[in-house]
Amino acid sequence: MRGILANIVGHVLALFAQFITAARADWRGIEPVRHQRIYFANHTSNADMPLIWTVLPPALRRQTRPVAAADYWLKTKLRAFAGGEVFRAVLIDRRREHQTDDPVDKIVTAVNEGASLILFPEGNRNMTEDPLLPFKAGIYNIAQRCPEVDLVPTWIDNISQIMPKGEVIPVPLGCTIIFGEPIHVRTGEDKDTFLTRASDALLALRPTEDKAP
Amino acid sequence: MTQTDADLLLLFAGSCLLLVLASLVGMVLQSQLSPNTDNPTVETYLTRVRTWWVMVLLMTLALLTGRIGIVVLFLFCSFAALREFLTLTTKTKGDHMSLVAIFYVVLPAQYVMIWLGESGLFSILIPVYAFLLLPIVSVLRQPDQKFLARVSETQWALMICVYCLSHVPALLTLDIPGYQNRVVLLVAFLVLVVQLSDLMEYYVGRRFGRRSIAPRVSPKTWEGVGAGTLTAALIGFVLNWITPFAPHEAALMAIAIFLIGSGGSVVLAAIKRDLGVRDWGHLIPGQGGFVDKMDSAIFAAPVFYHLTAYFWSV
């Protein structure tokens, strides 16, 4: 019963997000096919994860689980329902003292069960003027342990105009999600080299003529 | 069933007949030129025919529902057009409040006033109140940085996507003696004239056109516009029975609609070129965005509304 409800809520949310932003997927470096992937994206707003989730074709969406913060998604019952059952998020507690098991273990388990993932390698929402924060080590550790899975850079464009930092009401402007060419960790590649390469791959997708000053 | 509904159904039947022909032509073209659905020209044509079917069905349903149906349909079109336009215009963080006001106050207010028939309000809300008040909101939040570009581009978006487009449903508020129950047919007249003469202009212009109207901006040619003008006059003449106009007046009105509409289409193409985009949006299969699809109607509607109001309404 709850499962069906979660499914319906998921469809309604996707439709609603489509209506507000007319979000569009730009499959620039990869085709939207059922292949196990880890989409890693820039993170500036709370709408980021639902937006990526809604532009995925339904068949891919069912297979894809976002990696999200337990301290946010378990705060209220409603969020727990949305995070746990609608998005089926892999919940990670960012507060070290609350971690019962290793977050990377938990994520790798989800991948081994066949899930694709949506991941924000910056770890936190980017509240600065820089386009990206330095990536955390997590994505390197995951990539090393799942070498066969495609890591797809995913740039969320224009979200800063839909809801600039500090504003509460979103405006329904268009939004594009750009999927780039997948990368993999190379044999013997160290953490910093890989993180820089991943970060550059994501930045390369940013439209050059960015209207936001 | 009223006479107006019967006339609407007759127009619907006529449109369906044209679309059946267009679909048949498409099927023949596909079997000859694109058996593996790989000829882009043929496939684009087929996508467009499918879109036309949807448009004819939606328009007919809205027209049969009457004022509320038309108002809701065009409210949605305005919303979609506005989103396309404002996604591309110059704006900063300081304009966020203005944008919120546009989407959540000005847009619904314009259509509510049309629904209520308050012509004294819907004809000045955007050119006076929004024009003066929104820049004040923006200047209080961020007075520097490209100020003129921000406020003028925002106002252009509002005028084009909301003010002009809302004059299609505004036709229903006109009070024309002896035509009170039939006013919904004016919308059908406007839409049919715009679509059919644009189509002829497109076909002749691409096929036989030599002299370009606006090189590097629009593929329109003077030959195409000539053919479109003749077609418009003919359609206006043939359709005069659904209008309050005499036959020659209907033909002149149709010519005015077509010429202003074509001008609008070129103007909006120039703006697209300026903004560096090929299409305004992606929501209408085969035709780009809502602004692409409605560019001619956007320019023609307010002029058609005013000419009709000025000469025929009480």
From TrEMBL, chain A:
SMART domains per the UniProt record, alphabetical: PlsC
Pfam families named in the record: Acyltransferase
Entry annotated with the keyword Calcium: no
An example molecular function term from Gene Ontology annotations: 1-acylglycerol-3-phosphate O-acyltransferase activity
Annotated ranges, domain Phospholipid/glycerol acyltransferase: 37-159
This protein's UniProt keywords: Acyltransferase, Transferase
SUPFAM superfamilies given in the database record: Glycerol-3-phosphate (1)-acyltransferase
Range of residues in the leader sequence: none
GO BP terms: phosphatidic acid biosynthetic process
UniProt superkingdom: Bacteria
Biological or metabolic pathway of the protein: Lipid metabolism
InterPro entries per record: Plipid/glycerol_acylTrfase
Protein name as annotated: 1-acyl-sn-glycerol-3-phosphate acyltransferase
Automatic annotation (TrEMBL), chain B:
Sequence intervals crossing the membrane: 54-76, 97-116, 122-140, 156-177, 183-204, 225-244, 250-271
Species whose genome carries this gene: Litoreibacter roseus
GO MF term list: nucleotidyltransferase activity
UniProt name for this protein: Phosphatidate cytidylyltransferase
Keywords (A to Z) from UniProt: Membrane, Nucleotidyltransferase, Transferase, Transmembrane, Transmembrane helix
A GO BP entry: peptidoglycan-based cell wall biogenesis
Pfam families linked: CTP_transf_1
Highest taxon of the lineage: Bacteria
GO cellular component: plasma membrane
